[in-house]
Amino acid sequence: MPGNHALDTNRVVAQHANLNITTHGSDWFFTVCAIMGVSTLVFMGLAMTKPRTHRLFHYITAGITAVACISYWTMGSGLGQTPIQAEFVRPGSSKVFAAGTREIFYVRYIDWFVTTPLLLTDLLLTAGLPWPTILITILADEIMIVCGLVGALTQTSYKWGYWVFGMFAFFFVVYELVFDGRRHANALGGSVQRTFLHCGVLTIFLWFLYPIAWGLAEGGNVIHPDSEAIFYGILDILAKPVFGFLLVFGHNKIDPLQLGLSIREPGGHVRAGEKGHFQSDNPAGVANNGATNHGTINNGISDNGVTNNGNTHYGAASHGATEHVAPDHGTIAHGTTAPGTTGHI
């Protein structure tokens, strides 16, 4: 029969809670999965239109939505969850029906543990922050996610202790975005400042709503898992695909060199944003067996010869011999010298 039978098919996998998502919640999860998947393809397609040195933010953003796509596929299938005894049973509630155990999707936290550091990397690199600041901010973010997971899996009131620890870590992340990140972005100005402002404000606003969702769902057992799915799903759509499109389109006018990102072209030494400059692997004046080759370097190509009045004179020196090439107007002279002697051509 047509329709979504994922929950029935996977009901034999692991244990299930008294209070879990219905087919409506599963349908919503698969919808978000599709949005994340399409967004990933779009970000990768946009990356292909850019030089390799300008694809960093496209790749990071595509990675965010790709991981989220897998996560939502898992939740829509009724997998990646475990039943946890609810601290608040709420027998009079029409939403949670006095259920003893509640479905907790731990796969959601695995998703966040991978994607939120990538999202912060997008933001903090856009502001041009130094790597030590980026790393400590990512560490605080991961502490926040782990505290949320442990709290969700805790059956007693001690779960709120983890919520508090997570909030302290969250406030540190907000501090770095609002103060250090904004200061660096303002110093760079222009498109950097605008892109960081738009993406940063959106991120901070949405991230303040996640602890509220946690308190109503995993923490307080106030709303049904289907409502939880809708709440988190809307937040994730705004925090990942919408954030991603704002970011990558903002980077259309940002050169990675502005952000201190020096990215090499494959097979060369060109830094991102530099045009027409190439460092030769064979600079002029490299000695070979005692002989000196004099040449000019033009756009990374070494010409072993000196051009004089339109005529090129080639001379070969070997085994320590020095060769002098005299200009001969209108002719090309070739000469060699014997070992240990000086030849004049």
From TrEMBL:
<keyword id="KW-0157">Chromophore</keyword>
<feature type="transmembrane region" description="Helical">
    <location>
        <begin position="56"/>
        <end position="75"/>
    </location>
</feature>
<keyword id="KW-0600">Photoreceptor protein</keyword>
<keyword id="KW-0681">Retinal protein</keyword>
<dbReference type="InterPro" id="IPR018229">
    <property type="entry name" value="Rhodopsin_retinal_BS"/>
</dbReference>
<feature type="transmembrane region" description="Helical">
    <location>
        <begin position="199"/>
        <end position="217"/>
    </location>
</feature>
<comment type="similarity">
    <text>Belongs to the archaeal/bacterial/fungal opsin family.</text>
</comment>
<dbReference type="GO" id="GO:0007602">
    <property type="term" value="P:phototransduction"/>
</dbReference>
<feature type="transmembrane region" description="Helical">
    <location>
        <begin position="160"/>
        <end position="178"/>
    </location>
</feature>
<feature type="compositionally biased region" description="Polar residues">
    <location>
        <begin position="289"/>
        <end position="312"/>
    </location>
</feature>
<feature type="region of interest" description="Disordered">
    <location>
        <begin position="270"/>
        <end position="345"/>
    </location>
</feature>
<dbReference type="InterPro" id="IPR001425">
    <property type="entry name" value="Arc/bac/fun_rhodopsins"/>
</dbReference>
<keyword id="KW-0675">Receptor</keyword>
<feature type="transmembrane region" description="Helical">
    <location>
        <begin position="134"/>
        <end position="154"/>
    </location>
</feature>
<dbReference type="InterPro" id="IPR043476">
    <property type="entry name" value="Yro2-like_7TM"/>
</dbReference>
<feature type="transmembrane region" description="Helical">
    <location>
        <begin position="229"/>
        <end position="249"/>
    </location>
</feature>
<feature type="compositionally biased region" description="Low complexity">
    <location>
        <begin position="329"/>
        <end position="345"/>
    </location>
</feature>
<keyword id="KW-1133">Transmembrane helix</keyword>
<dbReference type="GO" id="GO:0005783">
    <property type="term" value="C:endoplasmic reticulum"/>
</dbReference>
<dbReference type="GO" id="GO:0009881">
    <property type="term" value="F:photoreceptor activity"/>
</dbReference>
<dbReference type="GO" id="GO:0005216">
    <property type="term" value="F:monoatomic ion channel activity"/>
</dbReference>
<dbReference type="GO" id="GO:0005886">
    <property type="term" value="C:plasma membrane"/>
</dbReference>
<protein>
    <recommendedName>
        <fullName>Rhodopsin</fullName>
    </recommendedName>
</protein>
<keyword id="KW-0812">Transmembrane</keyword>
<keyword id="KW-0472">Membrane</keyword>
<keyword id="KW-0716">Sensory transduction</keyword>
<feature type="transmembrane region" description="Helical">
    <location>
        <begin position="28"/>
        <end position="49"/>
    </location>
</feature>
<dbReference type="Pfam" id="PF01036">
    <property type="entry name" value="Bac_rhodopsin"/>
</dbReference>
